[in-house]
Amino acid sequence: MTTIIDAQVYDLRFPTSLSLDGSDAMNKDGDYSAAYVVLVTDDPQLSGYGFTFTIGRGNDLCVAAARQRALPLIGRDVANMVGDLGGVYRDLAGDTQLRWLGPEKGVVHLAMAAVMNAVWDLAARLAGKPVWRLLSDMSPEELVDVADLRYLSDALTRDEAIEILREMEPTRQERIDELDRRGGYPCYTTSAGWLGYSDDKLRRLLKEAVDSGYQHVKLKVGANLEDDRRRMGIAREVIGWDAKLMIDANQVWDVPEAIDWVNELAHFNPLWIEEPTSPDDVLGHAAVRRAVAPIGVATGEHGMNRVLFKQMFQAGAIDYCQLDAARLASINEILAVYLMAKKFGVPVCPHAGGVGLCELVQHLSIFDYVAVSGTLENRVTEYVDHLHEHFVDPCIVVEGNYVLPSQPGYSAKVFRETLDVYSYPKGSYWAAASESESVGAVSIL
Amino acid sequence: MTTIIDAQVYDLRFPTSLSLDGSDAMNKDGDYSAAYVVLVTDDPQLSGYGFTFTIGRGNDLCVAAARQRALPLIGRDVANMVGDLGGVYRDLAGDTQLRWLGPEKGVVHLAMAAVMNAVWDLAARLAGKPVWRLLSDMSPEELVDVADLRYLSDALTRDEAIEILREMEPTRQERIDELDRRGGYPCYTTSAGWLGYSDDKLRRLLKEAVDSGYQHVKLKVGANLEDDRRRMGIAREVIGWDAKLMIDANQVWDVPEAIDWVNELAHFNPLWIEEPTSPDDVLGHAAVRRAVAPIGVATGEHGMNRVLFKQMFQAGAIDYCQLDAARLASINEILAVYLMAKKFGVPVCPHAGGVGLCELVQHLSIFDYVAVSGTLENRVTEYVDHLHEHFVDPCIVVEGNYVLPSQPGYSAKVFRETLDVYSYPKGSYWAAASESESVGAVSIL
Fold it and tell me: Does residue A330 register a pLDDT over 60?
């Protein structure tokens, strides 16, 4: 019998604001960060690793919340726990007092993601499989038992969910073989298009992306219309008109402004406009979608929970669902979103980038193709070439495809040295940086 | 010149779970709590007091977040700050890194409420007015300048907001006089109907409520249909059929279940069903509303931000808007919700209870009548008789009315002794309680 004996939570922060990597119209100066959870067992060979992603200040709040979320796991038998991944999730999610702080949104939900991602990593390590295969080996009933279907029955019943999975079950292996044959799951790159980059850097990175085999690239827009026109013009010059160009406004507009602005950029033929307005605004996205068609509407990286996505589908608000592996409460909640997306016919193109999100979403996209959607049509998963060097089992992208992960787990483990250098505020990087900084005064009571 | 020199934040928790005060189908064991902010100035006579409300575990997260939110206020000139309450709000809300943790929801938004409530309290103290009068003395333009209208322009433009306020401006004093004459702003009581109470206690408390002049009472429902029938039967026996009976399910149902359950209780003629399902589910509330009419649908205590309320109004999802003074980001955001409610013709009946919420919402309801809605029709504000003894300037309810507050501020200040006894975990109450408790193990790294 193997038991969880500790839950270690680290406040990892990377100083990405210094290079404007990740800069956009809303998030100007992010320091990519992770509240990183290690579920330690009494077997020295077995731990579970997971995290949620933030962009700096407040990562400590997620760390503190993850400690509280993980507390009930300490002392639990690992085999028993991974045999009931739905029950574990419901136990943690059901905390009657923490629930008030959401419910199911914000810091306490991000912390649920961090802890449950570590639980799924642990389950996959125990099984000796990568997460995508662990999921692909589960029966429709097993998958639906772990999925969080609460509040969804007006859109998707348990029976419908099982039916969706059964339809694809007999042909799962064919699609795994197909992914192996084609070199992996298709992705696009955002690495070229950050708002803080110069035109020359943009042009160079776009060229590199096309040369590397990408068929899709994405630009950040929304700060200045003339700049957007110029940058989209550069993009079309470099990538041509056959490759797909996506644009991302990161929530800077009200609904009427979004409609006007996007229509001003329509002649560059963008595939989608991402995050045109508040991520909470289901009806707003539906209005934008009607007004900018045939340009698609995409959102989801700030999609707080499955109830929001349910409404996005019910209202016909989006053309692309960009769920986030560290904002939704892990695979339990993500499964529900994939199943609804299938029923409503909306392709899921997960958000990635940040730190470690690419490592997670490759598993999700592969599983989706194998067991849920059964198609690659209109599917493309984000890839950003940042910070992968910190991961023990980093994602591998070759010619615009995520290669199928082969190591056990969720690819979430970072190197010990990364913890030593980038833990905030005492890791060696931050300790050195703080010597030149003054710190504000606030009472600790 | 008076300057803010410190932001003290206290983790106040009251052991209400011991008596099942506040128990309902979702929140079974809340320890009513507040992340309580004191903005200290260099004038010993002037501080600002505010808080957000939680139900126990995780209150520490709001405390930590409020410290971060308040940090930019330290060193600011008070007169300059209260002269630009819209600018202060935008400065704090615009933190480019904390935003990722919502945006505008969950812990970081609750912390915005705590800090900005203290700023509004400070502004009113400096002006020597209760908050309701401070607001009632502001011009339409001044009010709209402090209101957060971002993401709302498809539902309410700035010009429409000014127009709404101008229409009511000439007759504000008449309505203040009317409230004085009638004894205050009408309220209802939830004190009788907590789910954990016995039938005898329910009957006794309902009788006391009617004898005290209440025309509206509310029961918690949703755990067991037979229990709900029996308790509603008792309620109608005691209060008769002229008084209004409201029911509150605290989010326990999926949409189809909500419709079936409420229709089973329809013959008790409830005025509204409150929180029938997930608070995030705009389209779900709209579906419930269509299916249970003429029973009204009410929600809002978990309404995370103004964008959610915008959609509730646009979708015709609710009959009563129950905004929360400590969940929305203070008066800046609440003003926007009141203005939209007026445009869409939805009465606002604020959520209260908890700890200190009654103290806050009385100011809001009075201001709404005086300057926005101009009517008391279908308006009734929650009142729960809990924990008022901890407040220096507690709300006063006489014969079912909130008496107009007369002291300067937002009625949010608690006694020093309360801080000494109920601060968690070192206040004298909790220190004594912890001696018999074992504490779980989790690493602090």
Answer: yes
Taking a contact as any Cβ pair under 8 Å apart, which residues of chain A between 109 and 168 contact chain B?
109-110, 150-154
CB contact under 8 A, A29 and B62: no
Neighbouring residues of A87: CB distance < 8 A, sequence distance ≥ 6: none
The string of pLDDT tens digits covering residues A171-214 is 999 999 999 999 999 999 887 878 888 999 999 999 999 999 99
Contacting residues for B45 by C-beta, under 8 A, at least 6 apart: none
Q: Which residue's structure tokens are 């662990």?
A: A134
Q: What is the dihedral of CA A102, A108, A113, A116, to 10 degrees?
A: -110
Compute how many other C-beta atoms are within 10 angstroms of the C-beta atom of residue B253. 25
pLDDT at B261 over 80: yes
pLDDT of residue B25 exceeding 80 = no
Least-confidence region, from A18-22, B122-126, B176-180: A18-22
Q: Which of B216, B218, B310, B351 is flagged as catalytic?
A: B351
Please list the residues that pair with B52 across neighbouring strands.
Answer: B35
CB contacts of A259 in chain B (<8 Å) are: none
CB of A440 within 8 Å of a chain B CB? The answer is yes
Q: Is A58 left (phi over 0), alpha (psi -120 to 50) or beta?
A: left
Closest CA to B369 of B396, B398, B401, B407: B401
Which chain A residues are closer than 8 Å to B61 by Cβ? Answer: 61, 64-65, 68, 101, 107-108
B351 is catalytic: yes
Give the number of other CB atoms < 10 A from CB of residue B213.
13
Task: Name the residue among B101, B104, B440 with its Cβ closest to that of A58.
Answer: B101
**CA B308 – CA B390 distance, rounded (Å):** 33
Alpha helices (H) along A221-376: 225-239, 255-264, 282-292, 306-314, 330-344, 357-367
CB of A252 within 8 Å of any CB in chain B? no
- Domains contained in chain B, CATH given: 166-402 (3.20.20.120)
**Residue in this structure with the two tokens 């999802």, named with its chain if needed:** B317
- A279 interfaces chain B, CB cutoff of 8 Å: yes
Contacting residues of A for B65, CB less than 8 Å apart: 58, 61, 107
Three-state DSSP state, B27: coil
B204 touches chain A (CB under 8 A): no
Task: Give the containing element (helix H, strand E) for B236.
Answer: helix B225-239
pLDDT digits (tens, 9 = 90+) for B47-89: 999 999 999 999 999 999 999 999 999 999 999 999 999 999 9
Which candidate in A17, A280, A328, A357 is best for mutational testing of the B interface (most B CBs within 10 A)?
A280
Range name among A20-24, A257-261, A317-321, B111-115 with the lowest pLDDT average: A20-24
Would the pLDDT of B321 be above 90?
Answer: yes
Question: Distance of alpha carbon A43 from its chain centroid, rounded?
Answer: 30
Please confirm, yes or no, whether B267 is among the known catalytic residues: no
Please answer yes or no on whether B308 and A443 come within 8 Å at the CB atom: no
User: A8 in contact with B at a CB cutoff of 8 Å?
Assistant: yes
Question: How far is residue B349's CA from residue B421's CA, in Å, rounded to a whole number?
Answer: 33
pTM: 0.96
* pLDDT confidence tier of residue A440, bands split at 50, 70 and 90: very low
C-alpha distance across the termini of chain A, in Å: 43
A15: nearest Cα among A2, A38, A32: A32
Q: Which residues of A does the annotation mark as catalytic?
A: 220, 351
Question: Closest Cα of chain B to A74: distance in Å?
Answer: 8
What residues of chain A, 346 to 405, have a C-beta less than 8 Å from chain B?
none
Query: ipTM higher than 0.90?
Result: yes
